[in-house]
Amino acid sequence: MIRLAVVGCGHLGRIHARLAAAAEAIELVALVDPVEAARNAVAADLGVAALATVDELPADLDAAILAAPTFLHEELGLALLERGLHLLIEKPLATRSAEANTLVAAARAGRRVLQVGHVERFNPALDAARDRLTDAKYIEARRYSGYTFRSTDIGVVLDMMIHDLDVVLSLVDSEVVDVEALGVAVMGEHEDAATARLKFANGCVANLSASRISYERMRRMQVWTPVRFAALDFDTGTTKLVEPDGSLTDGSFDSEALSADAKATARDTLFETLLPLREVSGPEVNAIVEEQADLVAAIETGSTPRVTGEAGRDAVALAERILAAIEQHQWDGHAGGPTGARRHVRTPIVPGPHWHLGTSATDVTAQSPRREAG
How many beta carbons lie within 10 A of that of residue 46, not counting itself? Predict the structure, then answer.
């Protein structure tokens, strides 16, 4: 039995707590949240201790699930790892790759399990098709939702697109050699919609788009390999596969040689004969339950979790490159115009008449144009 605490009693923390309390292999011991009402509401329902800080956790714990805001992941994650706890950190692992590297290094040094909550890796749609998606050459992902007013400390790239970045990196074993991206902020300082184009050293190209200000919900991915096409629907947990007939893959099919009747028949039965289409799905599961079970197995048997700290770090590093590309995007197509998700106009760094000896730093800040690096 794994003795476990959940740190963070927001939306995902509450879900983790209730599922952990119901798991046979887990004993939920405590909930941690600085907001008294938040921790007490969940703890009272589950009959566990409600604590304000991780410093109050009992010494005989085995593991923790960290579901606090992303900007706290490094600080709280390190504190939990230093207590000798195995750890599941909700996605994204951190706000920056440097922070993610620190967490990975700490887990390695302490020989603790570090798992990252990229829950789509446990989605039946991916499970059913994973073995058929080797050597992917083109991937397209679309992930849209309405604005939830959660995770506002990060933008849509780290909040939502990160799921698809992790899945893509799990499918394409190759270096990303080029990143192009565009994003737009609507509700605040962070981007709320973004699109990115990734090019890999092995020739694969991935186009990803994400929005958290959409009027429709969508979580879909399409994958082309040299021998098949797959359309994954993460919402329904199903995948549609198209596997071309051998005459198409070996180049022997000649549409021009067909009679008019044969063409009509081929057209009407296209997805039964030449491009046979079928739907596959894995067993219906709760992906977060599977994620928690994976954590338990890694702790008890020494197995590698499906989503390692290293995988979470790599997704954050790629997200960081996308965010940099978004900031560099020139909306008008030329230097000096607006750039970035907020369409900033960079002011030139040209000293004005008020930049003189004896002017205080405060005065300069107040009088001078905004100065930006670059």
Answer: 17
Which positions ≥6 away from 283 have C-beta within 8 Å? Answer: 124
Query: Average pLDDT, stretch 13-33?
Result: 97
Last residue of one domain, picked from the residues 240, 265, 281:
281
Shared domain check, 240 and 146: yes
Of the candidate ranges 14-28, 55-69, 342-356, the one whose mean pLDDT is the lowest? 342-356
Residues 254 and 165 in one domain: yes
What average pLDDT does the segment 240-244 reach? 95
Answer whether 0.85 is exceeded by the pTM. Answer: yes
- Residues 333-354: b if buried by 16+ CB within 10 A, e if exposed: eeeeeebbbbeeebeeeeeeee
- Cβ neighbors of 52 (< 8 A, separation 6 or more) are 32, 33, 34, 36, 39
In a domain, 266, yes or no: yes
Q: Which amino acid is at 13?
A: G
31, 51 in Cβ contact below 8 A?
A: yes
Per-residue model confidence (pLDDT) at position 80: 98
Helices (H) and strands (E) in the chain — how many of each?
Answer: 12, 16
User: Does the residue 323 lie in any domain?
Assistant: no
Q: Are residues 142 and 262 in the same domain?
A: yes
Task: Assess whether 176 and 300 both reside in one domain.
Answer: no
pLDDT score of 151: 86
Residue 123: closest CA among 105, 151, 103, 143: 143
Give residue 150's pLDDT band: very low, low, confident or very high (50, 70, 90): confident
| Residue 202 is assigned to a structural domain of this protein | yes
Residue 43 burial (CB count, 10 A): 21
Give the domain extent around 171. 132-281
Please state, in angstroms and rounded to a whole number, the distance separating the CA atoms of residues 242 and 44.
50
User: Is 315 within a domain?
Assistant: no
The total number of structural domains that make up the chain: 2
Cα–Cα–Cα angle for 75, 79, 83, rounded to 5 degrees: 170
Helix axes 309-328, 162-171, angle to 10 degrees: 120
